[in-house]
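User: I'm putting together a small comparison set for a docking exercise, and I want a reference complex before I start. The sequence is below, and the ligand is nicotinamide-adenine-dinucleotide. Could you produce the 3D structure with the ligand included, as structure tokens?
Assistant: Of course. I'll restate your input first, then give the structure tokens for the complex.
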Amino acid sequence: MATIGFIGLGNMGGPMAANLVKAGHNVHGFDLVKENVDIFIEAGGKAAGSIAQTVQDAEVVISMLPAGRHVSTVYETANGVFESAPKGALLIDCSTIDVSTTRRLGELAAQKGFEMLDAPVSGGIMGAQEATLTFMTGATDEGFTRAKPILEQMGKNIIHAGGIGNGQAAKVCNNMLLGISMIGVCEAFNLADELGLDRQKLFDISSTASGQCWSLNTYCPVPGPVPTSPANNDYKAGFSVAMMLKDLKLSQDAAQTAGLTTPLGANATALYEAFAGEGNGAVDFSGIIKSLRKSDS
Ligand code: NAD
């Protein structure tokens, strides 16, 4: 069993760290919010008073933080992870952040004698609680081999996407596609309504024809056809508009850095930004169907 330093005990990091405790690891945790630390202690974790204390004896350091700037601070600050973790410790950032920050930190880590990998997740809070997350990892072969047994205690699909940053690349590509496909499915249902085509009929046809995709078949944005989709529960998130917008913006940052235009990705970002701006940040991302209908009428 390993000694693990876990930084960021929020909605995702809290249950992930608790699963590592349950698996028998010696887990030291740190967060700026006291309530999150208290929940971690109740789960059997050991609270640390600072980043330095969290990582000083760690064989593995895991971070689960909101955005790139938080990750940079935690790793690069004086008495942060790079300064305080034992040389040779394995550093795993599970946050969803921009590809460039991830690659820059990976290079810095290597210069300082650490193996670092990015391992953003999908599967949401329920996946974190039930240890069924998918991890998209960017790592050397050696880093991946070292990290896999630990990640398997928090998730069920552990995929090696290539070198450092490729986990984030996979996450932004996937979620850009998801945002675009959800808008496409919403537009199809709105058009069907106007043409007098029953929603269930459209679902029965398209979900088995060439229009099928996850946004339609599993997460249908109108109530009825898929009883478990948030549309049946007044669009309670699920995966919120704010989270979708964050990932779409990351996709656009990545496209810009790569010198590529993604016209549908850019449009999806603008539409989600407008929807979030109308006070819908906490709504499930499939709820955008209402605003698309509105703008057409
Ligand atoms: P969250 O806001 O609930 O948790 C983040 C935690 O980091 C907070 O508790 C915050 O206090 C802590 N933190 C911030 N700066 C810190 C610092 N300097 N030192 C210590 N702790 C610090 O967010 P979350 O929902 O747990 O998401 C974490 C990451 O996972 C994000 O990058 C998010 O995009 C990604 N993600 C979230 C979901 C989801 O469904 N919530 C799904 C997939 C990926």
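The chain has a mean pLDDT of 96. Residues 3-163 form a domain with the Rossmann fold fold (CATH 3.40.50.720).
User: Thanks, that's exactly what I needed.
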